[in-house]
Amino acid sequence: MKGINKVAIVGGGIAGMTAAILLGRQNLNVDLIEEKSSLTPIGAGITLSAPTLRVFKEIGILEELEKYGGCFNSVDQYTSQGELLRTIPIFAGIASNNLPGGIGIMRTKLAEILANKMKEYKVNVLLNNSIESMVQSADHVSVTLSDGRQERYDMVIGADGVRSHIRNLLYPEFKGSTFTHQGVWRVVVPRFVDQCSIFFGDEIKTGFTPISSTQCYMFFNDHIEKEEHIPEERLTGLLAEYLSGFGGQIPSIVKLIKDGTITAKDIIFRPLAYHMLEEDWYKNRVVLIGDAIHATTPHLATGAGIAVEGALILCQEIAKDQSLEDAFKNYKRRHYARAKLVVDNSVKLGQYEINHESDEKRGLLMKESYEELSKPIME
Questions:
Q1: Average pLDDT over residues 246-267
Q2: CA angle 61, 64, 65 (to 5 degrees)
Q3: How many C-beta atoms lie closer than 10 Å to residue 333's C-beta?
């Protein structure tokens, strides 16, 4: 695209780093602005399904993900006591060959792989920094950084997550995320499953995703009344209590908690919320991607997938011979329905759990969602 040479990406998460790589491949000058002191995220494991893997194959990191992560091709669903109910295939992209259905990997390892790929395209990473203010004109964006620097960009991409500062600058009236009355617990445990595996309780569930040859990450969803965090000293006791009703291999995880092998510092808990920005995803020369637009719950394990897919679509449009406004409009046109499907169906699955809907009904919605997401992206 003519007139685009220097780009700022605000936010060094998965979507931001992916966009930086894709724009770097177009020989653009990219500044990645991250408010933290490193690109290393907080978190346990992450599940990468078809939408994510198609993009990561495109940018050339699939082999590393397969080397360091855990590959799987289905979601196996069990009763709370470990009896197999059904196996749901995770469809690789119809338009992509030689992809596993999914890969689990540590978030820290994924960030490391993406950061190394950015170096190949000479992405300039500005840590401990943020955009304090922006002034847009017809042909550029003038920004003031938190370190006092003044910079001028042809385009700014807000990839700064759920509490996006860039989104709030564009849409100060944004109402924020909606609490779902669920919370998710995450912890890395020894691997004892070959596929992504979910165990259904009544209104709670737990599951395991392979993230290496020896490890899984465990997630546990529970029903909570208030959107509040749990004190560290209560984490191990509560998680052991919640898991005590499950059978199969799960009692071995409870034992690791009770004997101190798994400590409170190993456990990550957060309340679940979501939002979908219905307004335009851009104003003039500033555009949003990822959780800044469509924050979802983890029930389809596709939040990262739809974020990197959005980054891919945006960068494809920027590469075309069209106006910047048309690029931003086409980006939303191609991405909106898929992003909304992930948000809506993830939230619906959470409500199914709270409302004691049958595990068969939950499984069917998951299957339908994965089938739809495996289809090629709209042109």
A1: 94
A2: 85
A3: 12
| pTM higher than 0.90 | yes
CA distance 305 to 302: 5
Three-class SS state of 190: strand
- Please give the Cα distance from 248 to 121 (Å, whole number): 47
Where does 6-176+273-373 sit in CATH, by number?
Answer: 3.50.50.60
Rounded CA separation 219/206 (Å): 6
Task: Say if residue 119 is exposed, middle or buried (CB neighbours under 10 Å; 0-12, 13-18, 19+).
Answer: exposed
Nearest-angstrom CA–CA distance, 144 and 129? 10
SS3 content of the chain, % helix, strand, coil (to 5): 35, 30, 35
Contact 101, 116 (CB under 8 A): no
Distance CA 354, CA 340 (A): 21
The pLDDT tens digits of the residues spanning 56-78 come to: 999 999 999 999 999 998 889 99
| C-alpha count within 13 angstroms, C-beta hemisphere, residue 91 | 14
Residues with Cβ within 8 Å of 90's Cβ and at least 6 positions away in sequence, in order, are: 49, 50, 72, 73, 74, 75, 101, 102, 196, 370
**CA-CA distances (angstroms) from residue 224 to 68, 269, 328?**
35, 12, 38
Residues in the chain: 379
**DSSP state, 322?**
S
What integer pLDDT is reported at residue 337 of this predicted model?
Answer: 97
Output the CA angle 163-164-167, nearest 5 degrees: 130
User: Using an 8 Å Cβ cutoff, are 334 and 340 in contact?
Assistant: no
* DSSP string over 241-280: HHHTT--TTHHHHHHHHHTTSS-GGG-EEEEEEEEE--S-
Digit-coded pLDDT (tens) for 306-336 = 999 999 999 999 999 999 999 999 999 999 9
The residues facing 219 across adjacent strands are 186, 207
- Return the SS3 of 197: strand
What residues contact 32, with CB distance under 8 A and at least 6 apart?
A: 9, 12, 16, 17, 20, 118, 123, 124, 125, 126
Residue 165: CB atoms within 10 Å: 17
**350: nearest Cα among 217, 107, 183, 138:** 183
Task: Determine the Cα–Cα distance for residues 15 and 339; give it in Å rounded to an integer.
Answer: 14
Token look-up 């104003």 returns: 283
**Residue 75, both tokens:** 């979601």
